[in-house]
Amino acid sequence: MHYMLFYDYTDDYMERRHVYRDVHLAGAKEAADRGELIMAGGFTELPFGAALVFKVEDPAIIERFVESDPYVQNGLVRKWTIRPWTVVVGAD
């Protein structure tokens, strides 16, 4: 099953992210290496945020990812949402 995780970042995200970025990206890479995270990236226009596509059987895996993310732990993510996503066209 596919899910999309949406992050809404704080207004000062760009000024604060550098402290946590390496650990944040390492966690994403680990999830990708396990085959859970398919793709991820940030929105380049205001309001800043991100979308991450997961392929997992249990959304609790995504919730654990969120809880361990330093962007979430340190208040750079103002709100996050997990939504089931049905792929109708594409390779996966």
Brief account:
β2 and β3 form a beta hairpin. The protein is built from four helices and four strands. By secondary structure, it is α+β, with helices and mostly antiparallel strands.
The proportion of residues forming helix, as a percent range, comes to: 25-40%
Mean pLDDT, rounded to whole units? 96
User: Strand tally, please?
Assistant: 4
Number of helices, where a helix is a run of at least 4 consecutive DSSP H or I residues: 4
Can you name the CATH architecture? 2-Layer Sandwich
Q: What would you report as the Rg, rounded to the nearest angstrom?
A: 13 Å
| CATH class bucket | Alpha Beta
Query: What portion of residues belong to β-strands?
Result: 25-35%
Main sheet: which strands, in order across? 2-3-1-4
Biggest sheet character: 4 strands, antiparallel
Say what oligomer this is: single chain
